[in-house]
Amino acid sequence: MRRYPLAGLLFLLCFIVLTTSAFPQSFQKTRALAVRGDPRAQYELGLMYAEGRGVKQNYVQARVWWEKAAAKGHTGGQYNLGLLYAGGKGVPQDYAQAQAWFDKAAAQNDPRAQYELGVLYLEGKGVKQDYTQAKAWFEKAAAQGHAGAQYNLGLLYAGGKGVPQDYAQAQAWFEKAAAQNDPRAQYELGVLYLEGKGVKQDYTQAKAWFDKAAAQGYVGAQYNLGLLYAGGQGVTQDYAQAQAWFEKAAAQNDPRAQYELGVMYAKGKGVTQDYAQAQAWFEKAAAQGDVRARYELGIILRGMKE
Questions:
Q1: What share of the chain in percent tops pLDDT 70?
Q2: 10 pLDDT exceeds 70?
Q3: What region, left, alpha or beta, does residue 136 occupy, with left being phi > 0 and alpha being psi -120 to 50 degrees?
């Protein structure tokens, strides 16, 4: 079973939910405090504009008020300005500016900014790709309990990027993130047990971790649960369960799951053999570039012409 590809991603579109509102007041009251120069109110007013809470959403205005708060050393304002520049929200996308603002927040020990700096170095956005620098920033954030940083450290150790490959370290970091209910880390722990990397191969343990991630809608885990049930690995072979998990993953447009559903219908595994259904699933997978699906689709279409 192939590892589901993952990468550390900038959370550019979800900064709104990262900080608890400090001013549960009306827009006008918050604005009045902001105009008088209160940095917390300026930061909160920026959030209101970014969210469209009590006012029409306006990223330009959000930037204006976060700049005022950031100029007074408000960490949240500095961090959110970094997100705006990284995502090109209310400003032209500018990774150098994003880095500058993340640096300011990180200097105040903000774990979110430390994490985002790690991502910039991990992905080479606005800076030369540098796994060692990425690791250094992720370690700072992870030490403060940042789940995303803990997860990414696990990936670095599992892949031997910026560090010697070390599955025991990968497992340790994935476990820290998984304890915070990070579905990506839960999935990766499942992969370690599935493939016996750094641990004794254990399909039952793999399934347990995939169950946790799949319950949160993680598509790779749903797909792998389908494979476990189809192959009777760590569970009693059960094509109905396999079909159910493949369908969940396929509903998220996973081409591998779509291919597996096509195979089930083509061969009548756990379902009534149905070439029309098989063709439909192979077409979905093939449209996303799945070579196996294209091959199987060709067989079906040739058979229809004979």
A1: 91
A2: no
A3: alpha
CB 259 within 8 A of CB 293: yes
Give me the chain's average pLDDT, please: 92
CA 208, distance to chain mean position in Å, is 20
CA distances, 90 to each of 78, 149, 161, 261 (Å) = 15, 27, 34, 43
DSSP 8-state assignment for residue 271: S
- 98 Cβ neighbours under 8 A, 6+ residues apart: 82, 83, 84, 85, 86, 116, 120, 126
Residues in the chain, overall count: 306
In whole angstroms, give the CA distance from residue 92 to residue 81.
Answer: 12
Token representation of residue 265: 């219908």
Cα distance between residue 289 and residue 80, in whole Å: 37
Q: How far is CA 42 from CA 12, 21, 55, 229, in A?
A: 21, 12, 15, 54
For residue 186, give both structure tokens.
């839960």
Are 148 and 10 in contact by the 8 Å Cβ rule? The answer is: no
Structural domains of the chain, with CATH: 9-108 (1.25.40.10), 181-252 (1.25.40.10), 255-306 (no CATH)
